[in-house]
Automatic annotation (TrEMBL):
This is TerB family tellurite resistance protein. It comes from Amaricoccus solimangrovi. Residues 25-139 form the Co-chaperone DjlA N-terminal domain. InterPro entries: DjlA_N (IPR007791), TerB-like (IPR029024).
């Protein structure tokens, strides 16, 4: 079933194939998408993404840099956000998706959350099946640190 999903996602015209560790790339690409949504992809956001990826996946710095680079390429060539949320939704159990949204709020909070980032996060939360209320609580936790 997962292989079929990857084939369908990779068949989207213009989409860059995600590869073997597609769930990691999709999650990192969502982080990059949130960070880039305000047209300012700052060093603080990159550092926050790197720290979150290293902590979550227990990766050394070189692997984190490789994963973020792959995610940046995937995000830049993606036609829409659904390409990534589908993979994450398939890979992450419902009970853990609020944590995904909280992680994305942490990326947005790295340099201050603006309207564009809020809009992208509302979309992503919705696509992941996370309610506005749960997303709001996740945002508050992310902003507290």
């Amino acid at each position: 079933m997962f292989a079929d999903l990857l084939r369908r996602l990779n068949a989207i015209p213009g989409a860059r194939p995600l590869g073997a560790d597609s769930a990691r790339v999709a999650m990192a690409a969502l982080m990059v998408r949130v960070a880039r949504s305000d047209d300012s992809y700052s060093d603080r956001e990159r550092a926050r993404i790197d720290a979150l990826l290293a902590a979550h996946y227990r990766l050394p710095p070189a692997e984190v840099a490789r994963l973020r680079g792959e995610a940046e390429e995937a995000e830049a060539s993606a036609q829409d956000t659904v390409q990534f949320t589908r993979v994450v939704k398939e890979d992450v159990p419902y009970e853990e998706r609020v944590g995904v949204v909280e992680t994305l709020w942490r990326v947005a909070a790295a340099d201050g959350i603006d309207a564009e980032e809020r809009g992208v996060l509302r979309l992503v939360a919705n696509l992941l099946g996370v309610s506005d209320q749960e997303s709001g609580l996740a945002r508050r936790r992310a902003e507290r640190g």
